[in-house]
Design a protein that fits this description.
Blueprint: H1 9-18, E1 23-27, H2 29-35, E2 44-48, H3 52-59, E3 63-66, E4 74-79, E5 85-89, E6 92-96, E7 104-108, H4 114-118, E8 129-130, E9 137-138, H5 143-149, E10 151-152, H6 164-176, E11 179-180, H7 182-190, H8 200-213, H9 217-227, H10 234-237, H11 254-266, H12 269-272, H13 276-288, H14 293-296, E12 298-302, E13 305-309, H15 313-327, H16 335-343, H17 357-367, H18 372-384, H19 392-407, H20 421-426, H21 435-447, H22 454-469
Parallel strand pairs: 2-5, 10-11
Antiparallel strand pairs: 1-2, 3-4, 4-5, 6-7, 8-9, 12-13
Helix pairs in contact: 6-8, 6-9, 8-13, 9-11, 11-13, 11-18, 13-16, 13-18, 15-16, 18-19
């Protein structure tokens, strides 16, 4: 049988060398991805029957080796031929010694069988190994069956020893369109109280993968809800049960709407073609766009009829978005763009007239460092998150906004001030406290369309200075 994917030539050479001292197996996510028809990006090799020194000697000729993981039996090799990095490890036993993700004693054990070595892995679909020479799959825990059924199932009862595995289930479900086995969901519920043991950087690591790699992000939220872990993210949990007006939101409550919006976002070509950083920014903005609804939703008379409305939920949602990002350990530079997108996600609903140049410029300025292109992606996901309600009219409005922004060359960046301090100095002014208010006034005039280029800005400035002297 042939392996389900091609191996890089430098890795195959390493495997041939390692074969002389032990029994190498490809393991983990690379095997899983290959079976799913996804080209593996990471290759991990587990080598039974070898000691650490002999494994190190076999690998040393192929490039620099990092043996920081010696106590865990891990060697990282940076290939001299390609610059790629590969992890080689010995099979190991783990025993719980304390609380948290790091409370384990690890002991390399080259004598472990394939089944014993696989039992320490989190899910059965990650416990499949591959003989790189024969192409034989070693699957003692039924991982291939679960992969075909799109089921996440724990490999052993030791699953409960590491609470991070629940968040791994959250992002894996979203990335690979998986559902959680009932018995695995029950185990996750039994350790819900251990969330506090997790370092926030590890929590961020799983949310980061969810936000940049999901194909069905709603599945991830479903896992959090099913396992009882949604309560650790109260800004998201509050969406469940918050009602919406059926005429405008036939899909259900705000949580359900948000799930639809997230899946709609990843279906956009704009999202799929973006880099990981922008994907994450947009995903968190869509997740948070209605965080303000639980606090603002009320059943009130509108046009002579009682309706569910959420006035001001955009402004209420901005601070909650920042609180959520801090909770999951996101980098601080996520706060301004995500917050701006949440605060302005209904800009296309305000007013019934055509977008003016001034309004579009001012919107672009309010969004910075996010952009109107970013906002359009959030708006489209929001519009498509109300099945089966058609949204053609909303998309036409978004198209108008984007077209206007592109015509003004500000779709992917905010307007920048044309008039600067150097212009004031060129007109004979000395830097003092009057500079800032004058420059602020110039920028406001620019946003209003009083001038569009540097000569126009200088003319405006001369006139303003002349008026001040009168």
């Amino acid at each position: 049988m042939s392996p389900p994917f091609l191996l890089p030539p430098d890795l195959r050479a390493m495997l041939e060398a390692v074969r002389r001292v032990g029994r190498p197996r490809l393991v983990g996510g690379g095997v899983r991805d290959g079976l799913l028809g996804i080209e593996p990006k990471d290759f991990d090799v587990e080598v039974a029957g070898a000691d650490f020194e002999s494994l190190h000697r076999a690998l040393a000729p192929f490039g620099s080796t990092d043996v920081i993981g010696r106590s865990f039996g891990v060697i990282k090799v940076r290939s001299r031929a390609s610059g790629s990095e590969y992890d080689f490890s010995l099979p190991r036993r783990e025993s719980k010694t304390g609380s948290g993700h790091r409370g384990f004693a690890v002991q390399p054990d080259p004598g472990l069988s394939d089944a014993e070595a696989a039992a320490r892995r989190d899910f059965t679909l990650n416990a499949i190994a591959l003989d790189p020479f024969s192409g034989e799959l070693i699957d003692p825990h039924g991982g291939r069956r679960d992969l075909q059924a799109r089921v996440l199932r724990h490999t052993s009862a030791a699953f409960v020893e590491d609470p991070l595995r629940v968040l791994r289930a959250f992002q894996l479900a979203a990335r690979f369109n998986l559902t959680l086995a009932p018995e695995t969901a029950a185990l996750c519920r039994s350790i819900a109280a251990t969330f506090a043991e997790l370092p926030v950087e590890r929590v961020w690591g799983e949310w980061e993968k969810w936000a940049s790699k999901s194909v069905h992000p709603a599945h991830g939220l479903a896992v959090l809800e099913e396992t009882g872990w949604l309560r650790h993210f109260p800004e998201v949990a509050a969406l469940r049960g918050t009602p919406q007006e059926p005429e405008w939101h036939p899909e259900g409550d705000v949580f359900t709407h948000t799930q639809h919006c997230l899946d709609a976002l990843v279906a956009l070509d704009d999202w799929r073609q973006s880099g990981a950083e922008r994907r994450r920014l947009l995903m968190f903005a869509v997740l948070a766009h209605d965080f303000g609804k639980p606090a603002t939703t009320a059943y009130v008379a509108k046009r002579g009829q009682l309706r569910w409305t959420s006035p001001g939920h955009e402004s209420a949602g901005g601070p909650l978005a920042a609180r959520f990002l801090r909770r999951i350990g996101a980098p601080l530079d996520y706060d301004p763009p995500v917050g701006a997108l949440v605060l302005n996600h209904l800009a296309h609903h305000h007013g019934n007239t055509q977008f003016s140049d001034t309004s579009v410029r001012r919107l672009a300025r309010k969004l910075a460092p996010a952009t109107i292109d970013d906002l359009a992606a959030v708006m489209r996901a929001d519009a498509n998150g109300r099945p089966p309600l058609p949204s053609a009219e909303i998309h036409l409005r978004i198209d108008e906004l984007v077209a206007q922004a592109h015509a003004l060359a500000i779709a992917d960046q905010a307007p920048k001030p044309i008039v600067m301090g150097r212009h004031l100095i060129a007109l004979g002014m000395q830097p003092d406290r009057t500079f800032k208010p004058l420059l602020d006034s110039a920028f406001e005039a620019q946003l209003d369309g009083a001038f569009l280029d540097e000569p126009g800005g200088m003319a405006w400035l001369r006139q303003r200075l002349a008026e001040r002297r009168i």
